[in-house]
Design brief:
Blueprint lengths: L5 E8 L5 H12 L16 H6 L6 E8 L5 E8 L7 H9 L3 E7 L6 H12 L3 E7 L8 H12 L7 E2 L8 H11 L12 E10 L3 E10 L1 E3 L3 E4 L5 E3 L2 E5 L3 E4 L1 E3 L3 E5 L13 E4 L18 E7 L5 H14 L4 E7 L3 E8 L2 H14 L4 E3 L6 E5 L4 E4 L11 E16 L3 H10 L3 E13 L2 E13 L7 H8 L5 E12 L2 E7 L2 E2 L5 E3 L4 H15 L7 E7 L2 E8 L15 H21 L6 H8 L3
Parallel strand pairs: 1-3, 1-4, 4-5, 5-6
Antiparallel strand pairs: 2-3, 7-8, 7-16, 8-15, 9-14, 10-11, 10-16, 12-13, 12-15, 17-19, 17-20, 18-19, 21-22, 21-23, 23-25, 23-26, 24-25, 27-28, 27-29, 27-30, 30-31
Helix pairs in contact: 11-13
C-alpha cells in the first residue's frame, strides 16, 4: 500500500478514562469486525482484563478507513494500558507510532497519568490529538476540562475534540482528524529491511510471536531473518496483521505494523527493542531500541503444599514466556519450604501475576511481604544487591545501605491538600513542589485542582500508601511515580519469631525508629491469626538479639480436674503437675502451623 495512506497511532490516557471503549468505536466505524462479533472492550482479550476493566497488555489492530474525500487509508491503532505499573508498555508503544490520541475524562479532568503520558509522547515528538471523552454523562464538565487543557497542556479549542466513546458522538470527526493531522510513517521501501520489535508473546504452536513495526524495506513469509541484537537467525513461519485477531498476509512493508511467527522457544531469545533484518543483504545499523524493564518490587512466592513446588516452577516458566518483565529465581525458607523470589514492575503487576498463577494453573500460594532492591556496601568494600530480608548481612558487616527513591506526583482537589500532606509525611515523603492546574467541582464544592510533588523511598509505597491516599482524598486523588535512583538510608532488619523459630516470610527492612511500632503491630496481628495450640506460643519481633515487641498465644487447656470429686488437694496438684510437664515436653517438640490467612493479614498491615 502507498506509504502516504498509512497512519500509525496509539491511544494514551489515565486509567479508566475510556481508551478501550474508544478503540471499540474506531473498530466499529472502520467495519473491521462484523457487528455480531463486536463486544465491549474487544481489545482486552485476557479474562483478567475484562473482569477488572483495565488494560494490562498493549494491543494492535489494523483499520481500513475511507475518508470523506473517498481516499482509502490504513490506520494501525495500538491500545495501551493506563496504570502506572504498565507505563513501560506505553513508552514502548509510542516508538512504533507517529501520533497519539490523548483521552481525558470530562468528569475527572487531567489526572497524574495524563500528564505522565503526554510528557512521554512529547519526548518522542508525536503529534498529540487531545480528546475530552464521556461528554454524555450527567456529571461531565467539558468546558472546565477544556480550560485545564488550555492552561496545563497548551492546546486550544480548535485542536481538541469532544466525544462520547460509548455512544459514538464525535468519533467520526476524530477519525478524520487522525487522517489529516498525523503524518504518514517515514522509512524507505528500497533500503535494507529493518523492523522494530515492540512487543511479543509465546504461542504453543508457532513459538514466539513478535509484534513489529517495519521501518525500512519489506518482510516476507518464508524469508530468513536475523535479530541484530541477539544474533539469532530464523525463518519467518508466518506474518500478518491484527484485525484484531492475527490475520496472515504474504508481506509487511515499510510503515506497517504487524506480527511475525519466529518458531523460537523463549521470549528471552526475541528481546523487545531488537531489530529484525534479512540475512541476505540485510541492514548493518540497528534501530534505537528500548532498555530492559527493571523490576521495582520483589516478593517470595511459595506453594501452600510442598508437593506443588514442581507445578509452581512450571507455571512461572510458562507465565514468563508471555511476560518478559517478570523475573524469578529459586529460594528456600525453613518455614515455607521451596519457592521463588520474583521481581515485578509494581504492586498491581504482582497482584495480577499471583492471580493468574492461582486461577490459570490451579495453585494455592503464599506470598511474602513485598520489598525493594537494596544496595549494601560491606565493611570489606564488597557491594551486593539484596532483594530479600533473608539475605540481609549482619549489622556488624554493613558499612552503608542505599535504597531506591521515587518522585511522586499526586493530582487532587485543593480541599484534600492538608490530609494528603499528612499522609506523605507519615510515609517519609519529602515535599518538593505544588502546582495549581485549574478549577474543579467535587462534593458540591468548587475549588482548585492541585498537583503535589514529593520524593519518597519506594519501600514506603509498598503496603498501604495507596489505600491511605484514596481514603483521605475520598477517591479523588490520582497517583503517578517515577524512579529517581538510590540514596543512602539508615535501616535495620526486623525478624519475627513464632515459638522461638524465625519466620523469614515476616521479616522486613525498616527504619530503626519505627521498629517498636511495626513489631508490636505484627505480633498483635499474628496473635489474632494463628490458632491456639496445646502449649503456650510466644510471638516476638526482634532486631538482631534485641526483642522489641512480644505477645503470647495462651495454651488450649484440658480440664484434667473434671473427674476429681472434691477432697484430696494432693491428687489435684499431681494431675496439674503432670499436665504442666506434658505441655513443656510438647512445646519442645511441637511445631506451630502458620495459616495462609496470617501471611495475608501481615501483607495488608501498614
Amino acid at each position: 500500500m502507498n506509504q502516504n495512506l498509512i497512519r500509525n497511532f496509539c491511544i494514551i490516557a489515565h486509567i479508566d478514562h475510556g481508551k478501550s471503549t474508544l478503540a471499540d468505536r474506531l473498530i466499529d466505524i472502520a467495519g473491521t469486525m462484523k457487528r455480531s462479533k463486536v463486544t465491549e472492550q474487544v481489545m482486552d482479550s485476557m479474562e483478567l482484563e475484562r473482569e477488572r476493566g483495565i488494560t494490562i497488555k498493549a494491543k494492535a489492530v489494523r483499520l481500513d478507513y475511507k475518508n470523506r474525500a473517498g481516499e482509502h487509508f490504513r490506520l494501525n491503532l495500538i491500545d495501551t494500558p493506563g496504570h502506572v505499573d504498565f507505563s513501560y508498555e506505553v513508552s514502548r508503544t509510542l516508538v512504533a507510532c507517529e501520533g497519539a490520541v490523548l483521552v481525558i475524562d470530562a468528569t475527572q479532568g487531567i489526572q497524574a497519568q495524563t500528564l505522565a503520558n503526554i510528557y512521554i509522547a512529547m519526548e518522542h515528538n508525536l503529534v498529540v490529538i487531545p480528546v475530552i471523552n464521556k461528554i454524555d454523562l450527567p456529571g461531565s464538565e467539558p468546558e472546565r476540562v477544556m480550560e485545564e487543557i488550555k492552561s496545563v497542556l497548551g492546546y486550544n479549542l480548535s485542536e481538541t475534540f469532544f466525544i462520547s466513546a460509548k455512544t459514538g458522538q464525535g468519533v467520526g470527526e476524530l477519525v478524520e482528524a487522525i487522517v489529516d493531522r498525523i503524518p504518514p510513517p517515514g522509512g524507505d521501501l528500497n533500503l535494507p529491511t529493518r523492523a522494530l520489535i515492540f512487543d511479543s508473546h509465546y504461542d504453543d504452536y508457532k513459538g514466539v510471536i513478535a509484534y513489529v513495526r517495519v521501518v525500512d524495506g519489506r518482510l516476507e513469509k518464508g524469508s530468513k531473518v536475523r535479530l541484530m541484537g541477539e544474533g539469532t537467525q530464523m525463518e519467518v513461519l508466518e506474518l500478518g496483521y491484527f484485525a484484531p485477531d492475527p490475520t496472515p498476509a504474504e508481506s509487511l512493508q515499510a510503515g506497517e505494523v504487524g506480527y511475525i511467527a519466529t518458531g523460537l522457544k523463549s521470549v528471552a531469545e526475541c528481546r523487545v527493542g531488537d531489530t529484525v533484518t534479512v540475512v541476505s543483504g540485510g541492514a548493518t545499523e540497528p534501530l534505537i531500541g528500548y532498555d530492559l524493564p527493571k523490576p521495582m518490587v520483589y516478593a517470595g512466592i511459595y506453594p501452600t503444599q510442598a508437593d506443588d513446588y514442581a507445578d509452581l516452577r512450571e507455571a512461572i516458566e510458562k507465565l514468563n514466556l508471555n511476560d518478559a518483565s517478570l523475573t524469578f529465581e529459586p529460594e528456600a525458607s525453613p518455614i515455607l519450604g521451596q519457592g521463588f523470589r520474583c521481581g515485578f514492575l509494581g504492586l498491581l503487576h504482582l497482584d495480577i501475576v499471583v492471580e493468574r498463577l492461582e486461577r490459570e494453573f490451579g495453585l494455592s500460594l503464599v506470598v511474602t511481604i513485598p520489598g525493594v532492591k537494596f544496595m549494601v556496601t560491606k565493611t570489606s568494600g564488597e557491594i551486593s544487591d539484596v532483594t530479600s530480608p533473608v539475605d540481609f548481612p549482619d549489622p556488624s558487616e554493613i558499612a552503608k545501605i542505599e535504597e531506591p527513591w521515587v518522585r511522586i506526583s499526586v493530582v487532587t482537589p485543593s480541599n484534600f491538600i492538608g490530609a494528603l500532606m499528612e499522609v506523605m509525611q507519615e510515609f517519609e515523603g519529602v515535599y518538593k513542589h505544588t502546582e495549581y492546574l485549574g478549577q474543579f467541582t467535587a462534593l458540591g464544592e468548587t475549588g482548585q485542582r492541585v498537583q503535589l510533588e514529593y520524593e519518597m523511598p519506594l519501600r514506603s509505597m509498598l503496603t498501604t500508601f495507596y489505600d491511605y491516599l484514596k481514603s483521605r482524598s475520598r477517591g479523588y486523588a490520582s497517583l503517578d511515580h517515577e524512579l529517581l535512583g538510590y540514596r543512602e538510608a539508615k535501616l535495620v532488619k526486623l525478624d519475627v519469631l513464632v515459638n522461638d523459630v524465625k519466620v523469614d516470610a515476616f521479616s522486613r527492612i525498616i527504619p530503626p525508629e519505627k521498629a517498636h511500632d511495626i513489631g508490636k503491630a505484627v505480633v498483635s496481628k499474628l496473635k489474632d491469626s494463628i490458632p491456639r495450640q496445646l502449649f503456650k506460643v510466644p510471638l516476638q519481633a526482634a532486631i538482631g538479639g534485641r526483642i522489641v515487641a512480644r505477645e503470647d498465644i495462651s495454651a488450649r487447656r484440658k480440664d484434667v480436674l473434671s473427674k476429681c470429686y472434691g477432697g484430696d488437694i494432693t491428687r489435684k496438684r499431681k494431675l496439674l503437675e503432670k499436665q504442666k510437664e506434658g505441655k513443656k515436653k510438647m512445646k519442645m517438640i511441637g511445631k506451630v502451623e502458620v495459616p495462609k490467612e496470617a501471611f495475608l493479614s501481615i501483607m495488608k498491615l501498614g
